[in-house]
Amino acid sequence: MRFALNREEPEAARPNPAPAQTDPEAPAGEEPTAPATEPAGTRDPVVSLAKPVVVDRIELGREPEGVAVSPDNRTIYVADQDSTDVHFVDVESKQLSKVTVPNTPRFLALSADGSRLYVSLFEDNFTGNGLAVIDTAKRELVKTIRTGPRPFEPAVAPDGRVWVPIHNGARVEIYDDKSLTEAARISVPPNPHWIVFTPDGKTAFTANHESSQISVVNVDDLLVRKNFKVGRSPHALAVTPDGSKLVVTNYDVDTLEVYDTGDQRQLHKVRVGKEPQAVMISTDGRHAYVVNEGSDDLSVIDLGNGKVVSTVKVGDSPRVNAISPDGLRLYVTDGRGKTVTVLRTTEK
């Protein structure tokens, strides 16, 4: 998932049209109240497969890029970057609908309760820069916020605010989720692509592609505590569910690196496929799933020993991946293939 846990979220009716996951311990006849914000891996995580299995391919749009999964696992959201469409896909029926945004959609982030979808926008000539806000229940555009040039993968912080890495601005812009206006800025080395939070919400990391550095940001005071060197061209980041490891894909040198989140010492360096783009971690924290755009495959890394344990072919020019909160499915957008590859990541 691409949001951090908000530990103070009230138990309120959620605007997401689909119900929350059921709680097997809830009394009979009672509506389950398990919060949809609970991060994957905290409640009896399923055992992940060392070799995920392709179970479906969904034809979708003209060039699917960003992808996210609803907290109830029932809907996937896909940004089609050769159009102005954001697709909603019902996982069970494969029924499609879409919301049109003002400019080319690139990357996605969901609010913790799934009620809002945040979509970064920009054109190839660096115009049309913005963040579209979509109401997922009404399936309509709420607002478009103008941002700095080339906003990449947004991320939702524990307090609900939206952090947006501004690639051509060497900064992170932070937007208030209530007023939908800019609340703060953080300067980082050139040029940020990706943001992740530790599960406790205290620390954020940004992948700064052109400088080959990761920034360590204190979420409370928004100060950069440290910038540390990694492999060339870090593109995407992920943090294990227990918060102990930070995983980095290095696009130009075909490697994945694993770091200790506390002292940022390197634990593993692994050669993967060509041009690794995005990475997700299984809900049990055992495996990292790396999307390799240049070799049209998925590298699976055992995070215990830092070894590639399998390689799985996906569609043409895979870009971004997202794992369902229940840990059962991994979704990979295949840009030139015009599909979303669906993989089973457990025995279920």
Tell me about this structure.
It is built from no helices and 28 strands. The N terminus is likely disordered. The protein is an all-beta fold. The strands form seven sheets. A four-stranded antiparallel β-sheet has the order 1-28-27-26, with no helix packed on it. The protein is globular and about 45 Å long. Strand 11 and strand 12 form a beta hairpin.
The span between the termini is 20 Å
Q: With helices defined by DSSP (H or I, 4 residues minimum), what is the helix count?
A: 0
Strand arrangement in the largest pleated sheet: 1-28-27-26
Could you tell me the radius of gyration in angstroms?
18 Å
> SS-based structural class?
mainly beta
Number of strands: 28
What share of residues is helical?
under 10%
Choose one word for the global shape.
globular
- Mean pLDDT rating: 90
Note the main attributes of this structure:
single chain; 348 residues; 4-stranded antiparallel β-sheet; globular
Chain-wise SSE layout:
Layout: E1 53-59, E2 64-69, E3 75-80, E4 85-90, E5 96-100, E6 105-110, E7 116-121, E8 130-135, E9 140-146, E10 155-156, E11 162-166, E12 171-175, E13 182-187, E14 192-197, E15 203-208, E16 213-218, E17 223-229, E18 234-239, E19 245-250, E20 255-260, E21 266-271, E22 276-281, E23 287-292, E24 297-302, E25 307-313, E26 318-323, E27 329-334, E28 339-344
Antiparallel strand pairs: 1-28, 2-3, 3-4, 4-5, 6-7, 7-8, 8-9, 10-11, 11-12, 12-13, 14-15, 15-16, 16-17, 18-19, 19-20, 20-21, 22-23, 23-24, 24-25, 26-27, 27-28
